[in-house]
Design brief:
Blueprint: E1 2-7, H1 14-23, E2 28-30, H2 31-41, H3 43-53, E3 58-59, E4 62-63, H4 65-74, H5 78-99, E5 105-109, E6 124-129, H6 132-143, H7 147-154, H8 160-164, E7 169-172, H9 180-195
Parallel strand pairs: 1-5, 1-6, 2-5, 6-7
Antiparallel strand pairs: 3-4
The structure holds adenosine-5'-triphosphate (ATP).
Subcellular location: Cytoplasm
Organism: Thermophagus xiamenensis
EC number: 2.7.1.24
Length: about 200
């Protein structure tokens, strides 16, 4: 079974693309979603979050998001520490999950896949790209964030040019290209690779 990563900047359309792969019967592991679960469940992450954010990190067993966000706002470097803590645990969870799947290939969807060096453990990587101004407009519309808030998040993600160097396929998910034919083309290429 091949392990395929799908990555792209905030608002690029990763999740939308992965839903199309799912409709083709391909299992998708949504790393950001699973990370949110693991932070509250996995002993290494619970302990690590307490160390980074203090006893207030959790309230009634749930992550105290406003406390964590406030601390990160005052010390943005904490994001790097959070990533270093969370990525290996999520990666291991992904591998355990993939062993339970029965498909020619599985997908791990993650916004910061390459930044954490996780690409080395994957067979192929797909970049989902869209121009920065399009992505900002999408996230502002989708989440009601301000443009500054989106730009702040982007600061911790590599730009597409840098990501492209590590990717085997690219899906252009701007407002001018149809995405379904692009997904189908890659899907059949991956099936061929798996078949060899
Ligand atoms: P994030 O990293 O913030 O989770 P994402 O990369 O997963 O974002 P999506 O949630 O799939 O991106 O898409 C962001 C927004 O853009 C959504 O509102 C979605 O409906 C819209 N969108 C996604 N792809 C396209 C497209 N090709 N054309 C127009 N709108 C799109």
């Amino acid at each position: 079974m091949l392990k395929v990563g799908v990555t792209g900047g905030i608002g690029s359309g990763k999740t939308t693309i992965c839903k199309i792969f799912e409709s083709l019967g391909i299992p998708v592991y949504y790393a950001d979603l699973e990370a949110r679960r693991l932070i509250q469940e996995h002993p290494v992450l619970v302990e690590g979050y307490r160390k980074l954010f203090g006893e207030k990190a959790f309230e009634y067993g749930k992550l105290n998001r406003s406390h964590v966000a406030k601390m990160i706002f005052h010390d943005p470097e904490l994001i790097l520490k959070v990533n270093a803590l969370v990525h290996p645990v999520v990666r291991e969870d992904f591998f355990q999950w993939s062993r339970r799947q029965n498909a020619p290939y599985v997908i791990e969807e993650a916004a910061v896949l390459l930044e954490g060096g996780g690409n080395h453990l994957l067979d192929k990587i797909i970049l989902v790209s869209a121009p920065e101004n399009v992505r900002i407009a999408r996230v502002v519309r989708r989440d009601g964030m301000s443009e500054e808030q989106v730009l702040k998040r982007m600061k911790y993600q590599w730009n597409d040019d840098k990501k492209r160097l590590f990717c085997n396929f690219e899906i252009t998910a701007d407002d001018n290209h149809l995405v379904v034919p692009q997904v189908l083309k890659i899907h059949f290429e991956l099936l061929q690779i798996w078949d060899c």
